[in-house]
Amino acid sequence: MLTSRKRRVARCLVVAAAVAAAAACARFIGQEPTAAGPGVPRLLTARFDPDTVRMGEETTLVLTFEDTDGDLAEAVLVEGAISDFRFVSSTNVINRNIRRHRGEVVGTVRETFRWEAPAIRYYDVFVVDLKGQASNRIPITVTVR
Known about the structure:
Shape: elongated
Order of helices and strands: HEEEEEEEEE
Distance between the termini: 28 Å
CATH superfamily: Immunoglobulins
Largest sheet: 6 strands, mixed
Number of domains: 1
Structural class: alpha+beta
CATH topology: Immunoglobulin-like
Oligomer: single chain
């Protein structure tokens, strides 16, 4: 018989395994990164602030980038989620228009998000410029309680 501590540890291990599986699956969904080179955008950091929220509360996606051409077009989040300790495979892709950052060579993008269902949400985040060149991907998570 498992004690409550052992059950919590087992659940954490299941969640960790599911996040790893989500990371492996999500990398094949959506656009592949463009090889690094002149004019190709690059994400320096990506995070949700705060990274734990209650249902209905807002969190902010914060991306720092560099793009020598200054022609960013959109931020893309490829989603996977864990709900009720089960991995939910998703091909949900969230695109956010960030053209207001055109002309910026280095900058920070801030986009607000809100969720109405509890889950640990996993995303691969990248940006795309007007030429269709995709940056590197950065994995991030947000916990919705």
